[in-house]
Amino acid sequence: MDKNTKEQMNEEMADVQLIIGKILRLGVMISATVMLVGLILLIVKGNGGYPNNAFPTDFTDIWAGIATLKPYAIMMLGIFLLILTPVLRVVVSIYSFYREGDNLYVVITTIVLVILAISFIFGILR
């Protein structure tokens, strides 16, 4: 590998690291904003939109609650977005390791992504 190719790879990896940082910041800001909207609605409405202070626990209830502006459903969406933020970081890391040619880390990070997906699926089936 010549010097120019190495420098180009280093610049590309620095760009990928900047993108990862932006993804994490943006994900946290978006989820915090959604949760803040839910909190404001909770304060304005005086209740969470569900009887006995229950809250939605599956996607169909959350989406139905969002459609009717139920505060707890909107806050659950914010939590879901916060959980997805590091998952997206794992996906971008797989790409980054692939571009670097670091196959060991591609495999390890892919295993982490599969474990996250399996835990997510088992959480839904629960």
From TrEMBL:
The chain crosses the membrane at residues 23-44, 72-92, 104-125. Keywords: Membrane, Transmembrane, Transmembrane helix. Pfam families: DUF1634. InterPro entries: DUF1634. This is Integral membrane protein.
